[in-house]
Amino acid sequence: MKNNKKAAKKPWGGRFKEKTAGSVEKYTESVSFDQRLWKHDIEGSTAHAKMLAKQGIISKADAEKIVNGLQEIGREIDEGRFSFSEELEDVHMNIEAALIKRIGSAGARLHTARSRNDQVALDMRLYLRAETERIGGLIKSLELVLMDIAEKNISVVMPGYTHMQRAQPVLLAHHLMAYAQMLDRDRLRFADALKRINVLPLGSCALAGTSLPIDRAYVAELLGFENVSENSIDSVSDRDFVIEFLSAAAILMMHISRLAEELVLWSSEEFSFIALSDAFTTGSSIMPQKKNPDVCELMRGKTGRVYGNLVSMLTVMKGLPLAYNRDMQEDKEPLFDTVDTLRATLKILPEMLQKTEFNTLEMAASADAAFSTATDIAEYLVQKGVAFRSAHEITGKIVRHCIDKGKTLHSLAIADYAAFSKHIGKDIYDRIKPAASVAAKASYGGTSAASVKEQISRLRKKII
Q1: Which residues of 429-464 are buried (b: 16+ CB within 10 A; e: fewer)?
Q2: Residue 192 vs residue 21, higher pLDDT
Q3: Catalytic: 410?
Q4: Does the active-site annotation cover 48?
């Protein structure tokens, strides 16, 4: 940020005798971080000027000067030739001061029928609308990558877990699609939040509206807002749309963190289910053999900062009386940080997944251990007419016998099986193979290949 050292005139200067203390200007400025809103500020001001001219509140000639001046300022900012001043506090006052300096009295008419209170609310909504749409697209791309990997591994069997203990065999594709389903809920959450973001606050002024004959619906049409805010006090004091975005972001990062944790586990020697690409891992400064899953670990860590940003915003808003209070300036840094974190994470995660190698043999071997098909024996007995609770007890006794005798379900003789239940025949051996166990789970949403293929097809149709 370039600093303009020349003393800046305050828009409220008529009321004050003393100059603002330098320490106060340093403490209260936000232009060091809110200058990223410049495009949205110029877009909103352009629409506002056009409305003022349409309503005869300012002349068409003045409106034309304002619009042209704003476009020139926009080009200067975009090219890095614009000097922002901390004395002018924020991006809004910097642009307005530059406009007045450039076009004179016509520029001083721009702020008619608006306040910084509704102006900043507008800029935040324009910014967040664009970022929410962008993030929705990134989530969709990640979903598609997961679906592609699932399709390529549709026959790979792995152990499913509960309580971090091997539970039942599942398809790797089914496991990955669990994350795709989580992400699709995230995508829909952001899409739903967009309905409440896409509301025009401009025209609410400081808090009471205006006596001038403005046309808010026209501004909404120019800016692509679907609705106009209903209450001018609420309009300038509302940050629910920011909190809702941060909440959706926290849930999204929680899902990503869960996936990242599994990738960390799976890449360990203890699991050896995957090999992360060298391009997405780091080494040790002292241990030459190490290959660390730092990207995944940072995804877990960055989830904490997104949670913190949500809590920060809730804390800022929890005790504020109506209407606008300067505390609300603290909405921007948590929001901007969250947006940056989401965008960076959602860009690198699909790249990493596409370069990840799956050790399918190790997965299959693990799926065939720890009596993972015991439930299939119970369901086999149910199909033979045995009540489930009895079938469960019988199967438990079979497992206990295997543990005591050092046997597996596959190595247990048919005579041993028959000793536990007369309903068990030689066909039991086909039922306790992991691949057979998976294939049998054909219920809607189950882990059979046919079921998972249908799941992938449904989700593709939903998002494409």
Answers
A1: eebbbbeebbbbbeeeebbbbebbeebbeebeeebe
A2: 192
A3: no
A4: no
